[in-house]
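ARCHIVE CARD
Drawer: 12
Card no.: 0347
Subject: one protein chain, sequence and derived structure
Cross-reference: see card 0346
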Amino acid sequence: MDWATIRTQLSGYPELTLRGHLGGKGTQHIEIWRQGRRLRVEVDGTPEFLCDGETAWSMEPTRHLTGLAGTPVTAPTGKLRYHGGAHSFVYPRDHRDWSGDDFTRPEGETTAERFQGRDCWTVALRAPRHKVGPLRLWVDQESGYLLGQVNEHRDAAGVAGWIVDPRIGAPLDDSLFVWDSPTVTPEDVKAAKMEERRALEESQRDWFREHVSDAPLRIPATVDFSPTQCHCQEDGTFSGGSVDGVIFRRESADAEVEDSDEITWTGNGLRTTVRFRNRSVVLDEALRDVIRERFDGGAV
C-alpha cells in the first residue's frame, strides 16, 4: 500500500459502518457512529451532533444559551459542521490538508500493523520545521477509516487520539442519525445571543448606576476639525477635513435627506455638510446652532 492510495482513502466517505469511542487526552467520553456521510457524536451519553447525510443537528451552538440549551440548531449539512474533540475522526480530509509541508509527506514506508484490534496501514508524516514530529497515522485496511494519530516526538505528549474498540461493518439503525424533537435555526441562535448580550450590558449599566454614579456623565469638550486639506472649485463647492471631521459643499438636490450622522444646510443652491469622524460627538440642536453660527451667523 502506498501513501497516495492511503491519502485518497482518508479523503473519502467509507461505506462500511463504524462505532467506537475516542481515546487519548481529555476527560469526556466521546462516542461516534459513522457510515458514509451519516454521523452521530455523543458526549458523556448525550447527543452532540447528528447528520443523516443531508440535514445536520448540532448542540454546540446552543450549549450555553439560556432557554435553548439541549435544543439543537439544524441546517443543511454543508452549512453546519461538528467542531468537537473527535473532529479528526468524523470528517474526511480536505484536499487542502495535503498542500504545503504541515504533516503532508511520509517520513518512511507504509507498513501493516495491528492497531486497536484491527489490521491497519500505518505511516509517519514528517513535521514542518516549526513543529515537532513525526505524526503517525493508523488507517483501517478494510474500511479506510482513520483509527489513530499520535505525534511520536517526546515533547508532544498528549498530542494523540484514537478510536477505542472500533466496530466496523455492524448494522446501525437509521434513527441514530436523525433528530425528531424540537429544533432551532441559526437565526434563532443569533437572536438569542444578541438578547443575552443586551441583557448582560443592561445589567452592567445597572451595576454602574448603583455602585458608581447614576448622574449623567456628558462632558463638554473641544473638537478641532479645521481642515488640514481643502479642495475648492470656482463654483463655490469644496471639500476639506481633518482627523476629527470633514466639511464639504456641493450643488443641492431637492430629494436629499440629512443623514443621522451629519449636520447640513442649504443656501444659494449649494448644500453644506459637516460630518464628524469622532464618535463621541453628540449631534444635538446646540451643536447644530454652533456650527451654523461659525459659518454664516444663523441657526440651522
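Annotation on reverse: Helices lie at 3-10, 186-211, 285-296. The CA atoms of residues 108 and 155 lie 21 Å apart.
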